[in-house]
Amino acid sequence: MDFLPSLSTLLAFTAATLLLAMTPGPDMTLSISRALAQGKRAALFVVLGTTLGVVVHTCLVAFGISALITASPVAFTMLKTGGAAYLLWLAIQAIRFGSSLSVMQVDAARRTPLSNIANGFWVNLLNPKVIIFFMTFLPQFVTAGDPAVTHKLLFLGFFFIIVGVPVNIIVVLAADKLSSWLQNNRGVLRGLDYTFAGVFSIFAAKIFLTQAR
Predict the structure, then answer these.
(1) What is the DSSP letter of 101?
(2) What phi, psi does 39 have (nearest 5°)?
(3) What is the average per-residue pLDDT within 178-183?
(4) For residue 56, how many other CB atoms are within 10 A of its CB?
(5) Which of 46, 60, 104, 176 is most buried (most C-beta within 10 Å)?
(6) CA-to-CA distance for 205 and 75, rounded, in angstroms?
């Protein structure tokens, strides 16, 4: 069981994970907007996609690829430019096909489970708070000279999922419960569409302006 960190390390990592999971970001924004527009089932597929994105980040850190990306200005520029462009596209989609559409229009624009998973995956793969956490913060919970460092990073990455996913599910279920009230308050709902679009745009600017350390 060499891959298990010490209890103190695990408790500190759990606290950091909960803080990150409860911090609003493009992943949470997307899952909430999808819950309001299409219900909790669609939003849970988004959560599945964001979870798959975390799996990729875990593997990148554990096998050292993220260090290469951070060290390469070209690779980092491509990463942040792609992330910014994708989040801006989501902002436009939130305004064009927001939750204030009629039921018939929402059904016509309804996304498949696979597309919801893909949206969640790419948002979390390019999510600035997750990128920064996994590239700079996660490695601090292991010792560089530890022979089991790769296995410990993998363990911490999947432990991150175990702790963070229930938080995401609770957020989705809460948003789903509010959907009926919001459907009867169309102005509030449309305001949320623009709020979501604004948050996506802010995070797009944030990730584009993030500099490699």
Answers:
(1) S
(2) 100, 175
(3) 65
(4) 15
(5) 46
(6) 18
